[in-house]
Specification:
α3 packs antiparallel against α10, α5 runs antiparallel to α7 and α9 crosses α10. The chain has ten helices and seven strands. The longest helix has 28 residues. The chain is globular, with a radius of gyration of 20 Å.
Length: 302
């Protein structure tokens, strides 16, 4: 198991379909390290423990701690957060999705953008990348995904919504179930949503928009939420006598792979002529849900 954990997906290929899908997500208990710590120590430690989307992890922790302690929230670097969202989305669109549909990745273009993403020309270089590389490549990828999925409409997955108040009720034990994420519509819809996130992040950089961050709590209880390229990230803290006594991180991966329903929904109407096609379909569905850790697929040919 890596420091982020591991994901195992099992399924049976039978009658040209994927059946009996089982998801096994294993996560190390990293947040146990926070128990007994000062809240400020937790904020400083979070980006080192959760290196993927580290800026979002830090601001979610900061928001949770601030509201729990009744502190005035610190102003984050909004541009830094938008660029992080761009980085994660462009990585998937240029490096991972093309091979998933049988096309070559745009590795050189991504590497060139990545090397200049923190410079003064980030808006110009991102706009040039999206116009010259991302959009033409995405059109080809999306066409192949629509054919494979038999998806003739133009749906785009609904954007994620921050709801820290509902999460606070769960964190304090006033509701039994964690707030659920909406089930994904389809693989093409999720792909279109990723394209829309790139356009939205670029527009936000141009217009100097604040990054979405929300919190709820008080009297030692705090929930902080923000967005990542994968969805809503939640940090929850309980502070007693100046020390952290409970801490929880709920990443989008934890919700989308808590059970097999999101994955099974994406594959429910798919038909595959061969086992290789079934494996490709499974990989596409997992990529659409975008786990933030390594995964293994085990397919049994019935």
């Amino acid at each position: 198991m890596t420091s982020a954990g591991q994901l195992l997906v099992r399924a049976t290929y039978a009658d040209e379909a994927l059946r009996d899908i089982v998801v096994d997500l294993q996560r190390p208990s990293v947040t146990r390290l926070f128990i007994g710590q000062l809240p400020d120590v937790v904020i400083k430690t979070v980006p080192y423990l959760f290196t993927l989307c580290a800026h979002a992890q830090r601001v979610a922790a900061q928001a949770a701690v601030n509201v729990a302690l009744g502190e005035t929230p610190r102003t984050p670097d909004h541009a830094e957060l938008w660029i992080e969202v761009l980085h994660e989305n462009l990585w998937r669109l240029l490096l991972d999705w093309p091979p998933a549909v049988g096309l070559p990745p745009a590795k050189d273009a991504f590497i060139a953008w990545r090397g200049s993403r923190n410079g003064d020309e980030v808006v110009a270089t991102t706009r040039r990348l999206t116009d010259e590389v991302v959009k033409p490549l995405a059109a080809d990828c999306l066409a192949l995904l629509e054919v494979a999925a038999g998806d003739g409409d133009q749906r785009t997955q609904r954007p994620a919504v921050l709801a820290p108040e509902s999460w606070l009720d769960y964190w304090q034990g006033m509701r039994a179930q964690m707030p659920a994420l909406p089930l994904p519509d389809s693989i093409p819809a999720l792909y279109r949503a990723r394209l829309a996130e790139v356009d939205g992040a670029l527009a936000a950089l141009v217009e100097h928009r604040p990054f979405p961050i929300a919190s709820a709590g008080g009297a030692g209880w705090g929930v902080g939420q923000t967005l990542t390229a994968r969805g809503v990230l939640t940090h929850a803290v309980h502070v007693v006598d100046g020390e952290v006594v409970r801490y929880r991180v709920q990443a989008p991966t934890d919700s989308l792979f808590a059970d097999a329903r999101p994955l099974a929904g994406l594959l429910a109407n798919r038909r595959f002529v061969t086992l290789d096609q079934a494996r490709q379909g499974m990989d596409q569905a997992i990529l659409a849900l975008d786990p933030c850790l390594p995964y293994t697929v085990e397919l049994q040919d019935a």
